Amino acid sequence: MAPNITDPKWYSIAEQASTEMDSAKLTILVEQLCTALDECRKPPALQPSNLSC
After folding, report:
1. What is the Cα–Cα distance from 13 to 39, expressed in whole angstroms?
2. Which of 3, 23, 37, 47 is exposed most, by the fewest CB atoms within 10 A?
3. pLDDT at 40
4. Which 3 state secondary structure label does DSSP give 6?
5. Residues ≥6 apart with Cβ < 8 Å to 31
6. How many CA within 13 A on the CB side of residue 53?
7. How far apart are CA 18 and CA 12, in angstroms?
8. In the prediction, which pLDDT does 31 show?
9. What's 43's DSSP letter?
10. Are 13 and 29 in contact (CB under 8 A)?
């Protein structure tokens, strides 16, 4: 499934990770998910302007 541009980035990554069978790719997706969620936890003034959480 292609990521929907209106979905938060972390949601799309989590969706991909939920079906990934390759452990190396899953590790990369989990790292990306952690990074995306960390960005969402930052105060709004420190978040990139294109971030939607």
Report:
1. 14
2. 23
3. 82
4. coil
5. none
6. 15
7. 10
8. 96
9. -
10. yes
Give the residue from 6, 5, 30 showing the smallest Cα distance to 16: 30
Contacts of 43 (CB under 8 A, 6+ apart): none
Tell me the C-alpha distance between 48 and 33, whole Å.
Answer: 16
Hey, what are 49's tokens?
A: 């302007």
pLDDT tens-digit series, residues 5-33: 455 789 999 999 999 999 999 999 999 99
Tokens of residue 15, six digits: 């969706």
Distance CA 47, CA 38 (A): 10
